[in-house]
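Possible regression after last week's pipeline update?

I re-ran a chain I had predicted before the update to compare outputs. Posting the input and the new output here so someone can diff against the archived version. Not blocking, just want to make sure nothing changed silently.
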Amino acid sequence: MQKLTRIAVATALATAALGAPAASAAQHGGGQGRPDGGNHAVFVQNDNPAGNQVIAYRRADDGRLTPAATYDTHGLGGQLDGSVADHLASQGSLTYDPRHALLYAVNAGSDTVTVFSVDGDRLTLRQVVDSGGRFPVSVAVHDDVVYVLNALDGGSIQGYTVHAGRLRAESDWNRRLGLDPNATPQFTNTPGQVGFTGEGSQLVVTTKANGSSLLVFNLDRSGAPADAPVVTSLPGAVPFAFVPDGAHGLFLAEAGTNAVATLVVHRDGSASQVTQAPTGQSATCWIVGVRDLLYASNAGSSTLTGLRTADRGRRLTVLGNTPTDPGTVDAAVSSNGRFLYAQTGVNGIVDEFAINDDGSLTALGSQTVPGGVGGEGIVAF
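New output (post-update):
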């Protein structure tokens, strides 16, 4: 927790007030029938409290981005107390649903979630739904089931099912997390991510410093959660974000230890750590994976740490660190696995990198996101 708090100290002099939202481009229709989904595109959420927006970029064959359009979510961004580079302090605030070619964006300041259909680099507004709690920060999808994580009032999850390109809230799929609602600062003491295990029968929530635990809800065949989660305490770890490792494993970014760990989630919902690799950096919070590679974002050091996995996640080898613009937060990898895009929150910039065969990163350029200071949420194709 103390290490995370140093983000504010390290980046405070670069903090700026968010401006008014950029003018929105005309929204393009997705054509007749079902949209094809994303292609050669990167979508970035600015989380602007004056009006949340998703900015679309076209990806060239060499990985460089060109602004394409700006889409209003018809909701407001939000900022947790104590945050500087990462106003939502979460992973998964902008999430793609490949089965239905939908994009889900949280509106933390409005307690809503916006649903867009995706066609190439174009978005079409489909729906704005209530998040089922206060301050939504993360969305997860598996097949026809979607869950939203709400960060305030002790945290909660709300489940939905997808029907004809729209979300339907399931009234009995809401669960309170029971975290301390008064723990401060907010940005280290709110839950960090909701996500499914690889085979989809379990739902995982990270609590960060508010318990330093993993909460696992076993799901029935319909997707409904158990009445209460199984809690695995990870003292001092401050679990922040994760990506699946096979059917029942997780690669977890631990902000308290500044490390990446491999965990196994057992059938009863308990979890156990298999191995851990320190990044040697500050505020290791976000993580993205491609093939046998992982990249962890270190907000306090403004770097990306590359790691290679082996032996079914039992071995993690640190490859090195790549500098970014100040305040490294969310990241995404293109669908062809060749490019990585990292949001940096202090100045609201997306950095572009090529992924080399040895796992190293080569800088290609950067894009300034309109209204994107402190923004989080990125999806790449």
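Follow-up from reviewer: compared with the archived run. Residues 2-13+37-380 form a domain with the Methylamine Dehydrogenase; Chain H fold (CATH 2.130.10.10). Marking as no regression found.
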